[in-house]
Amino acid sequence: MRASQGGIATAYRASSERCQRREVRAQRATRGAELRRATPAPEASNTDSYAAALALLQDRRLVVLTGAGVSTDSGIPDYRSPGSPSRQPMTYQQFISGPQERQRYWARSHLGWRRMGSAVPNAGHRALAAIDPELLITQNVDGLHEQAAPELASGGRIVTLHGRVSDVICLSCRTLSPRRDLQERMEALNAGWAEAHADVESRPDGDVALEETQDFVVPDCEICGGILKPDVVFFGENVPKDRVARCMAAVDALAEPGLELRDERQGKGVLLVAGSSLAVMSGYRFVRRAAKAGIPVVIVNRGATRGDEDAAYKLEVGTSEFLTTLASRRA
Q1: pTM of the entire predicted model
Q2: Nearest-CA neighbor of 124 among 331, 311, 318?
Q3: DSSP state of 30
């Protein structure tokens, strides 16, 4: 097993380093956009722009891309909106590099899961269920879209781009299991841990601010004894190709006017981005694809995004507020 892990680490090291360099460039680009913009994109204070964005979205086919900002009203913090805490997420290469890194990850995630696992969908999630997009692409791993819109989920119209933190995968035998089962095992092996650290600060993606993790006991796979990992895409990993292809096809379909659709909406569709800074390419690529094809893009996010210059409208308002209004217009 030790040799196998070393081989995996070697194989992913270059990919991880390239990913980190891309993220640094993306963050610089986002900060640069804030400094370069002499004339800001339309904001909610501009009533005409707000009304025009709603009018554009009211009767068009929609593909929706959501980020962490959609879940903040459910009590889950994000990490790129103004005032958010700094974040240094663990990379895949770090996770597989040794037991100490996995101990640090699981000790913190064990506490964060107790909070994220109790979160419920907010008005924005419920509004998206009513909006009924052609496809809902989410970068979030919290599972709240699936809870709010079970019909979309069962119909295959929700793509969890980065996976779901409620699932766990064994890196050896590839067995998938529910996170709640692992949570129970960790609680049994670490009695009193959660109570002793109940006051630690919450961070995005089910993480917490905790450094002393050396006493935490991490379970192995019950089937083969392998390494357990949340079934989410870490920095340094790639989004599965089939997920990307599904999303790209949905975006491309927005360019086709006059189709006979299930909801009979006609004309070129719109890509709506809600609650994402688009700092990572996994989401931003869909904005680039749409803009290149002449598909209108509307971005609703507090703070600058990487895609502001590609947007027909950029609205700096809360996502729950805007999505609720849009749902009522499309009803």
Answers
A1: 0.80
A2: 318
A3: H
- Using one digit for the tens of pLDDT, what is the confidence trace for 159-216? 999 999 899 999 999 999 999 999 999 999 999 877 776 666 555 555 555 556 678 8
176-178 β-sheet, strand order: 176-178, 163-170, 228-232
Is 145 annotated in the active site? Answer: no
CA distances from 59 to 158, 186, 210, 254, 268 (A): 21, 49, 47, 13, 10
Q: Please provide the CATH number assigned to the domain covering 98-118+165-232.
A: 3.30.1600
> pLDDT for 98-131, tens place per residue?
998 899 889 888 887 776 677 899 999 999 999 9
Q: Per-domain residue ranges for the chain?
A: 2-76+121-162+238-330, 98-118+165-232
Amino acid in the structure at residue 116: M
What one-character-per-residue DSSP string does 59-127 give?
Answer: TS-EEEEE-GGGTGGGT---SSSTTPPP--PPBHHHHHH-HHHHHHHHHHHHHHHHHHTT----HHHHH
Distance CA 26, CA 291 (A): 18
Distance, CA of 146 to CA of 168 (rounded, Å): 17
Q: Can you tell me the distance from the alpha carbon of 33 to that of 311, in angstroms, rounded to the nearest whole number?
A: 13
Burial of 301 (0-12, 13-18, 19+ CB in 10 A): buried
Counting as low any pLDDT under 70, the low residues of the chain are: 1-46, 78-88, 115-116, 197-213, 258-267
Catalytic pick from 110, 125, 145, 162?
Answer: 162
pLDDT of residue 170: 98
CB-based contacts of 258, cutoff 8 Å, min separation 6:
266, 267
Tokens of 97: 């590099």
β-partners of residue 302 are none
**DSSP codes of every residue in 151-186:** HHHHTT-EEETTEEEEEEEETTT--EEEHHHHHHHH
In the chain, the N- to C-terminal Cα span, in Å, equals 56
* Cα–Cα dist 96/33, whole Å: 35
The correct answer on CATH 3.40.50.1220 for the domain covering 2-76+121-162+238-330 is yes
What was the pLDDT predicted at 104?
87
